[in-house]
Amino acid sequence: MARNTHLLIAHGARLVTSLTLLALSANHPLLACIAGVLVYLMAFGLNHDLAHGSLGLPRKLNDGLLAVMSVPLLFPSHGMRLLHARHHARPLAADDVEGAGARETFWGALRIGPVNAAACRREAFFATQGRERRWLMVETFAAMAVVTWVLATRNVAGTGWLLAAIAMQLTASVWASYLGHRLPPRARHLLQKWAWTRSAVLISLAFHDQHHQHPKLPSGALHYAA
């Protein structure tokens, strides 16, 4: 049994809700794109806690769920976990590919987004080996299979998710890197007032310093460490 079962259930509920909204938007392309962003953010929040092993799950279950998150995120989660561990070990160092956006201005982070997205994929592939490399390959093929199905069927909901996932990846150097480290104090304080929502992404932004100090804490508990 997971130590933080209630947090895992909350993650699952948010992800299922966003997927339901995506399915219901099948006849509305714009709504499908918006729901696709929600799916991406909910999957990103769960993936982040899984990457840190902070939900207390058995290793095999944690690895399995991490692999499943590769599909909505359109990025091999085991590779993402390795890059994130490097980020925590050497924040914003020259080899911290994930933190590249935080070394730039806002517009600089936006400009390097597409290049950094490609660099993260390349670095994740070459940095993994053995068991992690095998997971990465399975996750990559699974995501590509889903993308192939979406393109072949021209499914509206699937296309909305795909466009959202691509947009989120190309701008990750801003929202996942720059804002986490360079968010103005007033904006951070405002986000902290919304910690009651238990939104993993919102809390990670609002309490990013605390996350670096307590990386094993699940995102839903970060505000208690403030």
What this model shows, in words?
The structure is a single chain. By secondary structure, the chain is mainly alpha-helical. It has one domain (5-225). 73% of the residues lie in helices and 0% in strands. It has twelve helices and no strands. Helix 1 (5-24) runs antiparallel to helix 2 (29-52), helix 2 packs across helix 5 and helix 6 (106-127) crosses helix 9. The chain is globular, with a radius of gyration of 17 Å. The model has no long low-confidence stretch (mean pLDDT 92).
Summary, kept brief:
It contains twelve helices and no strands. The chain is mainly alpha-helical and 226 residues long.
Question: Which keywords apply here?
Answer:
226 residues, mainly alpha, 0% strand
Q: Characterize the biggest β-sheet.
A: none
Q: What is the count of distinct domains? A: 1
SSE string, helices as H and strands as E:
HHHHHHHHHHHH
Report the end-to-end length measured between terminal Cα atoms: 27 Å
Mean pLDDT: 92
Class from helix and strand fractions: mainly alpha
Number of strands: 0
Individual helix count: 12
Low-confidence stretches: none
Describe the SSE topology:
Blueprint: H1 5-24, H2 29-52, H3 59-68, H4 70-73, H5 77-89, H6 106-127, H7 130-153, H8 156-170, H9 172-182, H10 185-192, H11 200-206, H12 208-213
Helix pairs in contact: 1-2, 2-5, 2-8, 5-6, 6-9, 10-11
